[in-house]
Amino acid sequence: MASGVVNIRRDVDDKFYRYRMPLLMTKIEGKGNGIKTVIPNMSDVARALSRPPTYPTKFFGSELGAQTSIDEKNDRFIVNGAHDAVRLRELLDAFIDKFVLCGACKNPETDLILTKNEMIVRDCKACGVRSNVDMRHKLTTYIVKNPPKKKGKRKKGEHAEAPSPAGLDGNGSGENGRGSPDDDDEGGGTDDELTRRLKAEAAELNPEATLEKEDWSADTSPEAVKARMGALQAGVAGLTLGNEDDSDEDADSPYSQLGRWVQENREASAVEVFKKVQELGLEKKHKAVQVLAQTLLTENALVEIPKYAPVFVKMISSEKHQKSLLGGIERLAGLTHPELIPAIPKILMAFYQVDVLDEEVVKQWGTHVSKKYVDKDTSKKVRKASEPFLKWLDEADDDDDDEDDD
């Protein structure tokens, strides 16, 4: 049976659910008392769950009352006895529920943390909640003795490798990782190769763009379009506060053209947006990041950030770019969509998770009120709303320091 891909939460019947994993596969080997069930793709499944493959393997053994055999060097994960694939998938769902999903928001984007008093906590990167694991389960003893490998603290300029959505990776070669528009093409694809790939992916993404437009696009009635255009023009007029040069205030500047195009093409995919940025010659301009943050995103920002993340990943290559992104977020939530103020921590987390915001930059921004992008009161309001995320960053640092001391 060929391996497929399924939702991590298999109770979510949505083929566009962003959290996916390989379908757990099994292979029966041996006979009689030596019969055993091999899980050939356990490493791939565990990687999708951000857990060591030993954890679900030991979980299976605990639930089935069976011995397990683990050979990580040769990627062999075995549960003694003959076990049906369907049964192991059900147990995997139980493992995910107990040791992966956030106890609050049920998001699988969590890390396991072992506290000083040997309690296991699921640290959610989506909502910031830390929920305790049920320590009565037998697997917890194994986890305490074999804690997750500590993730190194990210410093400025360091980013975890992750697949770039829509293929907009930084080096133009389709590999994981983040590059910058200023990077040389050594070892990467040429501009022609990038263009060809973008065209191919744009064709593949068109059906999704249609679905997104149908489900949650902005109101396209004449009255709504007129109102948004008015707001856009007012916003673009103020885009140059402290940015680049004053000549860009012209309504025909590339920035104004980009803002108008985004407003008029709400159904555009990430690939199409980036191609427009390239067409206007703005792929290296930090102010273009600000324009996109305040015009590309709407009141549905938390849904739109994953969709357009590759554009920001491709364009943000310096601290100045990151500050422009934060300025765009200030204008988005502070002026255009004030209803997003309570969601500021989640918005920052979403960008932080795709490695376009560095910890030091966010902390500096969050503790220094500025009138560069919005008025002082609005600036204070946005930063006040960001406090839960800033607190989470500090606590994560404290945990790292404590573990270093231990």
Automatic annotation (TrEMBL):
Biased composition (Acidic residues): 182-192
Any one GO cellular component localisation term in the record: cytosol
Domain of life: Eukaryota
Domain (W2) ranges: 248-403
Region listing for Disordered, in residue ranges: 143-223
MF terms in GO: eukaryotic initiation factor eIF2 binding; GDP-dissociation inhibitor activity; GTP binding; translation initiation factor activity
UniProt keyword list: GTP-binding, Initiation factor, Nucleotide-binding, Protein biosynthesis
Pfam families: eIF-5_eIF-2B (PF01873), W2 (PF02020)
Basic residues composition-biased segments: 147-157
Basic and acidic residues composition bias: residue spans: 193-202
GO biological process: formation of cytoplasmic translation initiation complex
PANTHER family: EUKARYOTIC TRANSLATION INITIATION FACTOR, EUKARYOTIC TRANSLATION INITIATION FACTOR 5
Family label: Belongs to the eIF-2-beta/eIF-5 family.
Protein name: W2 domain-containing protein
